[in-house]
UniProtKB/TrEMBL annotation:
One GO term of the biological process aspect: endoplasmic reticulum to Golgi vesicle-mediated transport
Predominant place of localization: endoplasmic reticulum
Function field: Metallophosphoesterase that catalyzes the removal of a side-chain ethanolamine-phosphate (EtNP) from the second mannose of the GPI-anchor protein intermediate. Participates in the glycan remodeling steps of GPI-anchor maturation to allow an efficient transport of GPI-anchor proteins from the endoplasmic reticulum to the Golgi.
Protein name (database record): Metallophosphoesterase 1
GO molecular function: metal ion binding; phosphoric diester hydrolase activity
Gene: Mppe1
Family, similarity comment: Belongs to the metallophosphoesterase superfamily. MPPE1 family.
Amino acid sequence: MLQSSSSALRTLPLKKRICFPMKLTCFVSSVFIFCEFLIYYVVIFQCDWPEVKAGAHMDNGEFSASVLKALFLADTHLLGEIKGHWLDKLRREWQMERSFQTALWLLQPDIVFILGDVFDEGKWSSPQAWADDVRRFQKMFRHPVPTELVVVVGNHDIGFHYEMTAYKVKRFEKLFNFTSGKLVTRKGVNFVLVNSVAMEGDGCAVCSAAEAELAALSRRLNCSLQKQNHSSRRCSDMEKLPASAPILLQHYPLHRKSDAECSGEDAASPEERNIPFKEKYDVLSREASQKLIWWFHPRLILSGHTHSACEVLHAGRIPEISVPSFSWRNRNNPSFIMGSITPADFSLRKCFLPHESTVFALYGAAGALLAILVLAHFQLLTPPFYFAQRLISKHKAV
């Protein structure tokens, strides 16, 4: 006969009755610490910086003495007060905070770029809600002084083109020191930051100002790329920049029909890949894409927005990398891009974060093991020997 749990507990020695809860507590604590803290170190520790030739000579004869180590992530989508459930916020934001802080500690990048949609409800959040979202963002993505954080604007930060206002744009620009055509130059590497939401091409006030900034920046970069002895008169009074073809950073991808040609474990799902993209909503228009390529002749383009990975070639020679979402809310397998970059060369590598399904599986396995241990401790599980013995006795009786 099986004993009841209360009678079984009374028959246990006092020492065992005291030690068992302590062991259970240690077991539960260990699982929790691993799943919520240590797993990020275990996974991200496997990532390392791609190799690139350092000390490369640039076209103008200058010499690059070091490699710029840059991280690129996208679409954090911090939930707001309207659509954000507190538990969803807690879970997703903890995942991103631990991922980001662990990556900073292990990889020590020089600069980090977030490619838009930092907030989920920036397009309609009130001043008070915006301030709360900003406070949480600054806590999650805090960083040491040697590491620089640069943020590009996305449609969820200021709204799609039909929702975008000068107030929302200025609010974002003030927070992140962002402009619609900003140049960031580090270690001789030029990055062009684009407000892709403003590339509508309809002459709206924000759009016109953004295109004017980009056109002026294009002239500066093109003048810097010209040979010293071939500089035209119009470049004579232009401030010289490092003679390095720029890297274009924006939220919307350049124009492509769909994700049909994309592949990899973090590409869009098979049923989503063949869905045609809508211009000026999923991707930039064909005209805006051609304009950016003509203006800047970039050597690399990095974008977000789709939440999935994709690699495409524009004009047969310019690679564009779509960076997947950094949040479990949008992907089971979020990731970021690591780039080793010099003025003349670059090398990229993807670093995956812990899978949400793996963490759930670990909790499930730990819960099942915990239940078995508790039942075995209170002698509520029939030992296999006695179970087999009863089967044999029953068979003989028949």
